[in-house]
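Minutes, project huddle
Topic: does the predicted pose make sense with SN-glycerol-3-phosphate bound?
PN asked that the exact inputs be recorded in the minutes so nobody has to dig through chat later. Recorded below.
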Amino acid sequence: MFGGRKLAALFSFGILSSFALQVEPSQAEDALAERLDPKSNVLVIAHRGASGYRPEHTLAAYELAIDLGADFIEPDIVPSKDGALIARHENNISGTTDVAEHQEFTTRKCKKVIDGSIEEGWFTEDFTLAELKTLKAKERMPQIRQHNTIYDNRYEIPTLQEILDLVRKKEKQLNRKIGIYPEVKHPTYFASLSLSTEAKLLDTLQKNGYTDRNDPVFIQCFEPSTLQKLRSKTKLKLIQLIDESGQPYDWTATKDKRSSASMLTAEGLKEIAGYADGIGPNKNLIFPRAENGSIKAPSELVRAAHKAGLQVHPWTFRNENNFLPANLRSGDQKAADALTNYGDAIKEYELFYNAGVDGVFSESPDTAAEARK
Ligand code: G3P
Ligand code: CA
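Predicted holo structure (tokens), as shared on screen:
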């Protein structure tokens, strides 16, 4: 059975609209009962794919996420030197590829200032797509996810188009809709290099049939000005990402004094509702942590965002003790494997589902789906 949110999603995807008006009273009551269940049918968004089990942002990670029940897969988008859109969490690819082992690229190692921070390494904007395709992905956190390292050096960096092709293939294979949730990374920085990704992103989505508000797409970004510009160019749903401290870099670049916290006020949320369909907050903004790392009582953010008409999709949910609130960790915390062991991740999901969130960014989509049951 589908709950209220799932019903809404199916209407959005155009699946139920043809018989929406023929619901019998008993069915309607069932639907209402489910709609009143706050745990029902939260969207499971696979964060960088099933990155708890495979190196992130690879077709293997995305495909496994879909097979494990993810409703949406999340590619972070950065450009190559020749403007191709590829999936990497950051343009510095030192930590997630084998680029350091490629002697032909040794001289491209350099230092850059990205969003105000000095970084050293190899950067996507210095490589053509053909060159990037000679690299292989590797696990970002080998200390925590040693099991993922057996998949190092096996998978290419995928393009957005390859990810969309995978989505199409899996939709046919599994006979269900799969959503795509791209993030526009570092828009101010890439604009300064004349390598903006936004127009190409919309163009690629449009060529693949994604144009309408009801299509299974959310475009996310930390920088409000990017979303505001996108709002005037697309009907696709937009999500304002919000971190727990600092400010988005477009505000830094324009000397706007506001902090990210200003987005959390009633006024801030109302402003976001003027251009976006939801917020993607750091999960600590919903369940803050105490000084000892334990989870505290929930904030008013979910309620306030819903009041402003915004969906709420917090990030990032991971199974390992290292990422869990102190009171949900398992085992002896002094043991050598304390941080890599799984804690009570299901309990964490349940807390957020009961708090009324509309979706979760998860690196273990099977766990998120299990908790949703
Ligand atoms: O996009 C949701 C979340 O992924 C934002 O943080 O840094 O993991 O892309 P990040
Ligand atoms: Ca992201």
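Observations noted during the meeting:
- Confidence is low (pLDDT under 50) at residues 1-39.
- Residues 160-174 form the longest helix (15 residues).
No decisions taken; revisit at the next huddle.
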